[in-house]
Each structure stands twice: as C-alpha cells, then as structure tokens.
Design brief:
Strand content: 5-15%
Structural class: mainly alpha
Radius of gyration: 21 Å
Order of helices and strands: HEHEHHHHHHHEHHEEHHHE
C-alpha cells in the first residue's frame, strides 16, 4: 500500500513545483504593490521595454508561468505557429465560425450522454444542472441546446444605470482590495497583441485558443484603441480609448464580446443591453473564463 503524503510533504512538493515553473519561465518580471501596478505598467510602456502585462499575485504568476513552456508529452503550437495562424484570422468572423464547428462536433457527441450508463457516470454538478439527463423528463434536444448555449442571451431593457466594469482587477483580490504584491511580466516584443501567443494563453473550456485572442486584440486595437493591461490565469483587463458611440454599435459589440466570452453575460451582467450600456460608459473591458 502506498503511504499518503503528509501535509508537510505536500507543501514541499508544491514549493518545488512552483520553483521549477518560475525557473523555466523565460520572461522578465517586475514586482510592485497592487495599487501601483497600473503606474508601473504605464512606466514600462513609456520606456519601450518590451510589452508589459500585469498578471496578479504570486499564485497567478506561477499559473501563467506554467502555460508558457513546452510540456513533455503534449503537442503545442510554438509562438511563431500561433502568430502565423493569427495573421490569417478575421475577428470576429473566424471566431464565430470556429464556434459553429465546435458546436457541430459537440452536437454529434452529446447524444451519447443520454445513454443510461453514460448518464450515470456524469459528474454530480451536471446531473444537478440538467436533471433531465438522468430523470428523462426533458428531451435530449432541449438539453443539448442548453448545454451548448445555442441561443443568444436575452437582449433585455436598456438599464437606467450602466453596470460598472472592473478596471485592473488582476491587481486586486475578490473584494477589490489592492494586492500587497503584484507581478508584471515583460514580453520581448514591440507588439503587445502577441502577448497571448508568447504565453500560450487560452484554449481551455470556453476560452479561445491563443491565436483567437491575438486576432481579437488586433481588431479591438484598430477599432477602439484597446490596450491589454492585465492578464491573469483566467481574467483579461483591457483599457480602451474609443467607446462605442451609439446603442446599436454597443449592442453589436456586446454580441461580439459574448461570442468571445459568454461568462461576462451569463455569469455577469445578465443581458446584452446591460453589457452594451457598460461598454458605452466604461473605459475598461473585463473578460473572465470559468
């Protein structure tokens, strides 16, 4: 029988893993207080020292560092390969086209979940979220549509007051208190839109692959004067210089952003109109992937 590791042994292994991840991380880092992170980022941008981005606390730095290097046994695109693909992408058209392809593949696989043995093996959270899978009280077609989020979210009424958008949230805790210590990573490039490619950032759950982030950032830079300021393991903070001027333009952008990151509506502001109103009022965009 294998002995269960003691708490001290687990801590030792974790510390060893963190040290190894940081040792293999090839990019320069700057440490500052959370309430000084934006000023530090602006200073680095002005200095022309590569492309800086705020990644968050110690744990966030380690998790970002784990994404960047090659992993033995896994085939991953190189930064050059990601950028070559990104050069051919048209945002948001190609992102939406890829969503359609992914939906079609998932639609082929999902009916298998409704077989009794497969349904019984599903995680409890899925059984709770979609009781019809095991109870048989909802059609497979209904459940598939729900699981694939095939319908557009509610447009809703235009809110009396626009929701506030988090600003540099990666430099603060969940209560909004600035971190005692925040880290910035400096990518050796004069094109900040390539940061996700260098970090191999994305391609988990509903989060787009790195090349789609690069394409989106390039499009938003041209259309809205966007700047990528913060990029933690699951959050992106963008500052923009030009906001949408009309409700129609804002709603189009809200639909585009929903396709890019559905959680900002479904687990955030609730409706497309609320997101559109926020886009007209705020200089910061917030994206979060579960």
């Amino acid at each position: 029988m294998v002995d269960k590791p003691t708490p001290d042994e687990l801590k030792r292994r974790q510390a060893e893993h963190r040290a190894k991840a940081l040792a293999s991380f090839p990019f320069d880092q700057i440490e500052t207080a959370g309430d000084q992170a934006l000023a530090a980022w602006e200073g680095l941008v002005a200095s022309g020292r590569g492309a800086p981005v705020v990644v968050g606390d110690d744990d966030a730095l380690v998790r970002v560092a784990e994404m960047a290097p090659d992993v033995p046994g896994f085939v991953r695109k190189s930064t050059a390969e990601i950028l070559k693909i990104a050069d051919q992408l048209r945002h948001p058209d190609d992102l939406m086209r890829q969503h359609s392809i992914d939906m079609a593949k998932a639609r082929e696989r999902l009916p298998q979940l409704f077989q009794p043995k497969a349904a019984a093996a599903l995680p409890d959270f899925m059984k709770a979220a979609f009781p019809g899978i095991s109870a048989g009280n909802q059609s497979p077609e209904y459940l598939i549509a729900a699981m694939l989020r095939e319908s557009e979210p509610e447009v809703g009424d235009w809110p009396a007051a626009a929701p506030l958008s988090p600003q540099l949230s990666v430099a603060a805790d969940l209560r909004g208190t600035p971190l005692a210590r925040a880290h910035l990573v400096i990518i050796p490039t004069d094109d900040w839109t390539t940061i996700p490619a260098y970090l191999r950032w994305g391609n988990w759950n509903a989060c787009p692959a790195p090349e789609y982030h690069v394409a989106a950032l390039r499009s938003w830079r041209e259309r809205f004067g966007a700047e990528l300021v913060g990029l933690s393991p699951d959050v992106m903070n963008i500052r923009v210089r030009q906001k949408p001027k009309t409700r129609a333009e804002a709603l189009d952008l809200a639909r585009e952003q929903y396709s890019y990151c559905s959680d900002i509506v479904e687990q955030g502001v609730g409706t497309l109109s609320a997101l559109a109103a926020a886009l007209m009022e705020n200089d910061w965009w917030y994206f979060w992937w579960d």
